[in-house]
């Protein structure tokens, strides 16, 4: 008896419901279990909060170790008797099948998925434990003896479920943390003043940004927020040239014009870097239409709602007027709209270019991937013309050099081949925009890749680069490379731009830290998933895509870092499609976790510095990746100065690397020819020398193989082939058809590979290839295959 009293005294006593069945021991321990039996009237967490039900597929169960005997021994067995595990298994399975238990589980946040996972874990825990806690043992014994009911297991099942799914116990708190319905309240400094909002609306080349910048330069203090480093550099230079001291702040760079290091009254920055606590007289937010961007839209929302400036000048498309007006209505601020018209006329031509022989000075061919850039520039220079090349992954310095080369009236380079990177940030003297294709891969709000025609807003943005007011061409023209695309281009440009309806939001580090406090065992990627699932936004906002963040979080999850450091690493602006850059981030994080500073010598060893000019396209792509690694180092150096101490030295070699890349881009056709020597891409098919004209057979048979050269792919079958080869391929009817289907979005590279595999497996195809082989026996004795 003394032993029982001692045991009862050790158990936590909490009030509970009256027992439903007669077993005395069951009654005592059920009351001491500390779990309330839920009532039918209990409301779910989501109903109490008015939010949508969480996506429980994101809830990752924790592992609960089976119990081993403690120093006190098996107390439950001492009070009752050892359990018959086969009988226990029958009781557990009966419990699982009870509809009443599933309903009670639902009322406590366990939907069918969670209920099933919790039961599997609970059953495994019961069956694999060499002994059980006294309360569970006694309940199971009573049920086995007929003195209890199977439903009496529910409080203990629920307790176990909350152990493996800790979010069930704090769902209300998690919902409050992820409540994003009142973003204006996040910025008390901005709400403490009455701001004047001026919207400068108009198309490209309408002077809207110019008028906003004039007000910025005339103010006592000001901040310019732009989407690109190039634009921030331009305003930085323009301000200081106008004798208005201005600092530069980007993710990778800080330039203070004051020799003693004091901050200037004006600052030009990339929009993610703007301060929402520093007071200014005037703030300029450029390209406001990017507030809808699935990945970066949150930065424009933060600047618009949070900048503490007496006047906020917003520049961008008229499609954003209604949204900005509604957002400012929620802050109690009025919007003054100033509309602008294009300063120079632009004409959509009635004819397509059709052939590169029809190019003339001032032409810009716009492609939507690098392989087309390489192909078109190669064909242009094969005609004896020089061309400049601009695409997104080039360093800013190289882009500016190529733009200067194209704009220089004394330079023989009169043709530009570019991606949509020319849409903003560069002043170019373009007479005619020629769309090589109208199909572009894009990422939707769900993070899925799609191939679709470019939207009207982007078509207008790119077309507007022709005939700019400040260039030598006062009238612009727009057309397409292919006649079939011209009708579609006119249709796209004639559409009205749909109004922008929502603004992006993104979880902050503080919000994720609060989530982690409640869910300490969850991974950062899982925390982000649960946050987005539970988040509540009103109709004016959406939660930005966090796939890139989660990609980096999963990549460095195994590295021991505290949550705030891990969050910063995951927000690093890198291209996850570049393996070398991702590997570098991984090594940076691992070095950081060991508390070992990443010195200049370390980064030089990692990148094999010094580097030499590229010999082929593969080398050029690698140099671009190394430049991005230097950018990553500089970006991290401003957040962890003690761990990335050699920012100035890295910036110096990055400038040298920029010059090396410029050398490669200037001779890009030579690099393409070097790549051609061993790689001729024809829709991922093998190309024999017998397929080429005699002159080309001699050229390729004498070419030297470049070690390690990868197969080159593109959205067209035109890449990396001289004009003579192209015409010959068109005569075969294979390359041109596949290229057209890919260009029109009817085929993808994966579909082409699938067709190739089916062709290789099909018996009829085998027979046909055998016949072809027999008919070409003599030729194949002299045939050399070039891997595509």
From TrEMBL:
Protein name as it appears in the record: ATP-dependent RNA helicase SUPV3L1, mitochondrial
Keyword Translocase: no
Swiss-Prot/TrEMBL catalytic activity: ATP + H2O = ADP + phosphate + H(+)
Family assignment from sequence similarity: Belongs to the helicase family.
EC number: 3.6.4.13
Cellular location(s): Mitochondrion matrix, Mitochondrion nucleoid
MF terms (GO), sorted A to Z: ATP binding; hydrolase activity; RNA helicase activity
InterPro entries: DEXQc_SUV3 (IPR055206), Helicase_C-like (IPR001650), P-loop_NTPase (IPR027417), RNA-DNA_Helicase (IPR050699), SUV3_C (IPR022192), Suv3_C_1 (IPR041082), Suv3_DEXQc (IPR044774), Suv3_N (IPR041453)
GO cellular component, one term: mitochondrial nucleoid
Keyword tags: ATP-binding, Helicase, Hydrolase, Mitochondrion, Mitochondrion nucleoid, Nucleotide-binding, Transit peptide
Record GO biological process: mitochondrial RNA 3'-end processing
Domain Helicase C-terminal: 348-513
Needed co-factor(s): Mg(2+); Mn(2+)
Organism of provenance: Chelonoidis abingdonii
